[in-house]
Each structure stands twice: as structure tokens, then as C-alpha cells.
Amino acid sequence: MHRMPTVGEVLRDAELRLQASEAIEHPHAGKEWWDAEQLLAFVLGHDCDDIAELVPAGALQRFTRVLERRAGGEPPAYITGRVEFAGLDLRIRPGAFIPRESSEFMAEQAVRRLRPRPEPVHLDVATGIGPVALAVASNVPKARVFGVDISAAPVRLARENARLLGLSNATFFHGDLFAPLPATLRRGVDVITVHPPYVGKRELRTLPDEIKRFEPEESLTDGSPQGLGLLGRVAVEGPAWLRSGGWLLVEVSPDRSRAVATVLRHAGYTEVRSTKGGVAVSRVVVGRRTAGGRR
Fold first, then answer.
1. 145: Cβ–Cβ under 8 A, 6 or more apart, which residues?
2. Domains (ranges, CATH) in the chain?
3. CA distance 190 to 16
4. Are 257 and 281 in contact (CB under 8 A)?
5. Please, is 141 exposed, middle or buried when counting C-beta atoms within 10 Å of its C-beta (0-12, 13-18, 19+)?
6. Cβ atoms 147, 127 nearer than 8 A
7. Which DSSP symbol is given to 218?
8. What are the φ and ψ backbone dihedral angles of 290, each rounded to 5 degrees?
9. Where are the alpha helices (DSSP H) in the chain?
10. How far apart are CA 182 and CA 5, in angstroms?
């Protein structure tokens, strides 16, 4: 009779299996261990803090199945149905864009600008399952927070996440950019955030398999050659919704930050600059609507 393996032994074997996979990214040392730990915790129903804990045969079989899904490229978030963002436990399903840690910096920037306002209003465009909007709603309880997305399924998840987190100050709309928003928000928003689908149409094929095979294409690209089509619309239409002195915050890759800054300046924003958080793969370009700016 075979003895039951320990958590540590199972994780070490799983790490080797994932390291050998060509279907997933290997961005830094320890990523495979982290993925395996997430999946084993999902199967066991608790954290894997005790590496000497024995793993029963049934749990090991279930873990082997989910590990093979991961080795085949499927993101852990789609397997577990959960993703953490800014300390919030969010529900997610295939068909929705997976929130990135890099977006937490944009949420932090929004929070910093909203907290001093007496009655702050935040709008998150292309909100997906609502990570940025919900992080703002959680950290600025007095704020009225709105999110909008053109895809219906992620909006349903955003509403579910708001309900599960008890964030009644967050409201989500399904529709194209600003179209579904109530007219009363015009000239009343303090901060607009957007993480646009900025991958150029031809660049899609260069993305890692685990992204282009599993995440929805409309969340990765707007179909324009440079990936700036949707952002251009947000920049032009945004001033009609921002208060005087309100901010537009745009998360993009470092190689696009200059182009995005140019788009914002051409649309009449002032104080335009690129800011950098703790994650090297993204920048947040900011711009401000002023009373004398283009509208």
C-alpha cells in the first residue's frame, strides 16, 4: 500500500510538471510553485501552509486533473473561479478578462485623487468583472462608483462581486463606453479609469498561448492597428463626463505610454504624464480636464 504524499512533495512534483510545460508563461522563478499552491489549496479547501500535511488519494486525483488543465495553458483563475485583486476575493469565469496585479496601481491612483473630495464620483470604463471599480468602492466608501463594459457576462460577474463584497456604492452598466450611463453623471465625474484593450490587431498572434487561447479577444484588442482606437474614443468623449479638474487615468504597456500621452494632449487634457508603480509591465498615463480645456 502506497503512503500518502505530503503537501510539500505534491507541490514539488507539480512545480516540475509546470516548469516543463510549453503552453504557459514562465516570467520569473517561483511562478510555477505559486500556481501549483493555488490549485492544491483549491482542491483541499484550505491554504497549503503545512507542507507536512498528508494529501489523501482522492484529493491527489482531483489535483492531478486540475494540474493538467494548468499545464495545458488554462489560467488558474478560470480553474478555481476566483482571483484576488487589491485584497478583494473576486469571482471570475471563462469569457471575462482576468484582472492583473498591475492594475492595482491605477486603483491606488484613483483612490488618492478621490479621498479628498466631499462627494467623490468614479467611473471605470471597460470594467470587466469590476476589479478597479470595486477596489475604489472598498477604499472610498463615501464615493459613488460606476463601471461599464460592452460585454454582458463580465458585467453580471461585476454585479455579483459587488453583492458578495457588500459594496452597495458600486453600480455596473452594460453598454458601449458612456452610452448606458445616466445623463445626471455628465460633468459630475471626478476620476475616469480605463485599462483599454490596447494590443494591436496584428500583435495578437505574438501573445502567450495562455492569454490568446483562453481570454476573450475583445478584452485584448479593439481591432485597431495600434490598439489605440477605444482609448481615442474615451479621451475625446471623457471631458463631457468629467468635472472641471477631473482626471482620466489610463493603464497601458510602457511602450505605448508616449503614444497615449499624445492622444490625451490632442484631446485637450493638461498635466499629462506617465506614472509608474511597482510592476514593471505597465504604466498609468494621467491627464486632467481643466475649465479652459477642449470639451
1. 121, 122, 123, 124, 133, 134, 136, 137, 167, 169, 170, 171
2. 7-80 (1.10.8.10), 93-289 (3.40.50.150)
3. 48
4. no
5. exposed
6. yes
7. G
8. -110, 160
9. 7-19, 31-44, 57-71, 76-80, 103-114, 131-139, 152-165, 209-212, 229-237, 257-266
10. 57
pLDDT per position as a tens digit, 154-191: 999 999 999 999 999 999 999 999 999 999 999 999 99
Report d(CA 241, CA 152) in Å as an integer: 23
Query: CA dist 47 to 32, 81, 89, Å?
Result: 16, 16, 14
27-47: pLDDT as tens digits: 788 999 999 999 999 999 999
Grid cell digits, residue 245:
479638474
Q: Which residues pair with 248 in a beta bridge?
A: 192, 287
State how far the Cα of 104 lies from the Cα of 106, in Å rounded to an integer.
Answer: 5
Going by C-alpha positions, the residue among 3, 42, 1 that lies closest to residue 14 is 42
Least Cα distance to 97 among 111, 80, 83 occurs for 83
274 close to 241: Cβ distance less than 8 angstroms: no
- 249 with 192: CB under 8 angstroms? yes
Place of cell 505574438: 206
**How far apart (Å, rounded) are the C-alpha atoms in residues 249 and 125?**
10
First-to-last CA distance in the chain?
75
Pairing between strand 170-174 and 270-275?
unpaired
Evaluated on CA atoms 242, 193, 166, 115, the torsion sign reads negative
**pTM for the structure as a whole:** 0.90
Q: How confident is the model at residue 292 (pLDDT cuts 50, 70, 90)?
A: low
Average pLDDT (266-272) is 96
The answer for residues whose C-beta is within 8 angstroms of residue 1's C-beta and 6 or more apart is: none
